Amino acid sequence: MPHRRLAPAVVLALIVPLAACTPEPDPEPGPAATALAADLTDGVFDGAPVDDPDVATEQLTTLLGDLAAFPREVAATVVEPADGEESGDGPATRDVELAWSFDLGEGVDPLELATTTTLTLTDPAEGDDDAQPAWRATWSPALLHPEATADSVVTVERTQAARGDVDGRGGQPLVIERTVYRVGIDKANLTEDRWQPAAEALAAALELDDQAGYVQRVLDAGAAAFPIALTIRQADEERYNTQGLRGMEGVLLQEDTMPLAPTAGFARAILGGVGEATAEIVEESQGQVEPGDVVGTSGLQRTYDAQLRGTPATQVVLTNGAAGNFLLGGRDAVEGVDLVTTLDPALQTFAEERLAGVESASAVVALEASTGSVLVAASGPGSAGLSTATVGQYAPGSTFKVVTALALLRAGLTPDSPVECTPTTTVDGREFRNFPGYPESSLGTITLREAIGQSCNTALISQAQTVSAADVADAAASLGVTAAMPEGQAWPFGYFSGSVPTEATGTTHAADLIGQGDVLASPLAMAGVAASVAAGRTVTPTLVQIEGAATPDAPATPLGEQEAAMLQDLMGAVVASGSSTFLQSVPGGGVGAKSGTAQFGTDDPPQTHAWMIAYQGDLAVAVLVEVGDYGTATAGPIIADVLTFAATSGWNAG
User: Fold this and answer.
1) For 483-496, what is the mean pLDDT?
2) Whole-angstrom Cα distance, residue 616 to residue 629?
3) Residues 109 and 208 in one domain
4) Which of 82, 101, 359, 562 is the most exposed place for a label (fewest CB within 10 A)?
5) Which of the 8 DSSP states describes residue 14?
6) Same structural domain for residues 625 and 561?
7) Mean pLDDT of the chain
8) What CATH number should be reported for the domain holding residue 407?
9) HSE-up of 85 (CA within 13 Å, CB side)?
């Protein structure tokens, strides 16, 4: 039979079914590995091909425990088999390396974990002709760590570092760990009917300010709680009769340590306090402080808390119950760094004791003139916790006449220049007069030296046309008043350096010349005036010693040596023959001083701030009593006692 050629259409029809039998290539494992890493990162199995994703999600959350709160990233790398390794009749598999990275916060190295899992290529379900083989993973706690089981959980144990101390002049310890006793009711050792009477008895024995409030705290606390009524220093055991407290029903004294100053009130307004972090402090720390941490709550302890508290220890532990624990990572604690201040413990303590009986706000400040180091920054009990010494804002009264004198010296006067001291003088209809009891022998034409020595108001006000407000402000800056830090920098401690108008005229300018009007200063600023005169240059205070710390801007016109010498002459006259001759009896050499009285308020007669500044050798002191009599009468005896203590206690600025 002759061979017949098929038509082209018939040939194609025979070939097409043969092509349909060619198998599709296996899918790549990379996308499945990437999906697994993504689900491990966000903690929800909604993309990775795993069996029972809900169970996997729940178990991963439980396993991570404390770690779940830390940001993490998981990366997956498919390990391709070497040539010839993949063989056999079973399903194809690929090893996948998982790299976990947990961000444990600032200053802590990330926690890095490496594990391996396997992807298996599974066939499509039977009868599903459209499905393709797929790579699948099997969830297991071992994806996080080889030793992890279904009962495992990760804990992050955080332990605070030892807090740095606060030291004073010469490295003398100020705030260190000291023994305390936390006193409270141990409810677990009492029957419920005895909680209230025990709490009432303890509150009365401790003379708590809010006794009913403590009793209610005891009643509201849990049945096994230990509500603390008071924390007692070891040094105060006798005062609070701790032996007697131990014998009271339900009372427990729990020994502990706390960072404390030598006494409860020592430089409290400056150093500040330490206590449990408030919610606000925790929030502001951006993860560096956690609830329950002990932190600085005020003062220098708060300002330099990051330095003092150090870095906590962190341990990430895989807890396996009876099978034991595995340390996954973490870091050791880094102790806090000590803060060094310039405070002199003996001088500070004496100043605080001297102010103990002053009812109104008060302050004593002492500087080492040669360095500007703040040796004393004491605020009396009437200051009610405010650092009157450093941030108080008061009219400085006649102590400001030292500033006015410098402005006049720069205008051409000398200590011997004649000025007119009249009983009264009038500026723009306002009458100014001298203080009651001003000596008549110092009225009339007197020298500038005598005008400063006797504190004649009218003599200085009569020079109002000689110097402008800008001249006075410039002189104040030369003596450290109104000192400012460079733009963008803050004082390393709370400090009000003063405010002096630059454009005042008329009665305001006249009043400014005698330290009233709109002039304001803190006791520390006025101590800086005395220190500048003593040192012969502009002095600004230093309280904390921080390497590389910014320093105040220099004044436009620094104090010159010859100017300082003339001011020493004027302040010396105050003690030699002026209003403060009582300071001649202070041991230890010549004293220069200036008293001040500043009226304030609407009473008739007005109340007065009592001031005095003085220097002796390398020690410069300022005293303020917010409500007092005259500067010499109220502040004078205090400054005399401080100078005497410094001279007789062996204080040596060198």
Assistant:
1) 94
2) 24
3) no
4) 82
5) H
6) yes
7) 91
8) 3.40.710.10
9) 9
**Half-sphere exposure of 271 toward its Cβ, with a 13 Å CA cutoff?**
31
Q: Structural domain tally of the chain?
A: 3
Domain end, chosen from 266, 281, 313, is at: 266
Query: Domain boundary residue among 246, 266, 286?
Result: 266
Contact 447, 416 (CB under 8 A): yes
33: pLDDT strictly greater than 80 = yes
For the segment 303-323, what is each residue's pLDDT rounded down to a tens digit?
999 999 999 998 999 998 766
pLDDT over 70 (residue 83): no
End-to-end CA distance of the chain: give it in Å, rounded: 133
Q: How many residues does the chain have?
A: 654
455 and 409 both lie in a single domain: yes
Residues 556 and 618 in one domain: yes
Domain for residue 282, yes or no?
Answer: no
Report, as an integer, the average pLDDT of 542-556: 92
CATH code: domain of residue 45: 3.10.450.50
Distance (Å, whole) CA 335 – CA 163 = 6
Name the pLDDT band for 16 (thresholds 50, 70, 90).
very low
Q: DSSP for 515-530, please give it.
A: T-TT-BB-HHHHHHHH
CA 528, 534, 539, 541 dihedral sign is: negative
Six token digits for residue 129:
């002709």
Gyration radius from the chain CA atoms: 39
Percentage of residues of the chain with pLDDT beyond 90 = 80
Q: Give the side-chain half-sphere CA count within 13 A for 72.
A: 25
In a domain, 297, yes or no: no
CA distances from 494 to 85, 171, 272, 274, 307 (A): 73, 22, 11, 17, 18
Task: State yes or no: pLDDT of 642 exceeds 90.
Answer: yes
Reduce the secondary structure of 394-459 to three states and give it as a string. ECCHHHHHHHHHHHHHHCCCCCCCEEEECCEEEECCEEEECCCCCCHHHCEEEEHHHHHHHCCHHH
Band (pLDDT 50/70/90 cuts) for residue 18 is very low
Structural domain of 217: 166-266
Q: Could you tell me the two tokens for 482?
A: 């109104």
pTM of the predicted model as reported, rounded to 2 decimal places: 0.82
The answer to whether residues 221 and 361 belong to one domain is no
- For residue 302, tell me if it sits in a domain: no
Mapped onto helix, strand or coil, the DSSP state of residue 130 is coil
Dihedral-angle region of residue 513 (phi above 0 means left; psi in -120 to 50 means alpha; beta otherwise): alpha
- In this structure, how many other beta carbons lie within 10 angstroms of the beta carbon of residue 5? 7
Long-range contacts of 47-53 (CB under 8 A, 24+ apart): 48/137, 49/134, 49/135, 49/136, 49/137, 50/136, 50/137, 50/138, 50/139, 51/136, 51/138, 51/139, 52/139
CATH number at residue 194: 3.90.1310.10
CA-CA-CA-CA torsion sign (263, 267, 268, 274)? negative
Residue 9 inside a domain? The answer is no
Are residues 531 and 470 located together in one domain of the fold?
yes
Same domain, 177 and 139: no
Nearest C-alpha neighbor of 396 from the set 480, 273, 323, 284:
480
- Taking only the tens place, the pLDDT of each residue in 271-307 is 999 988 999 999 998 878 888 899 999 999 999 999 9
Tokens standing for residue 38: 């993504």
Neighbours of 306 (CB within 10 A): 15
Question: Does residue 95 sit in the same domain as residue 213?
Answer: no
Mean pLDDT of 433-456: 96
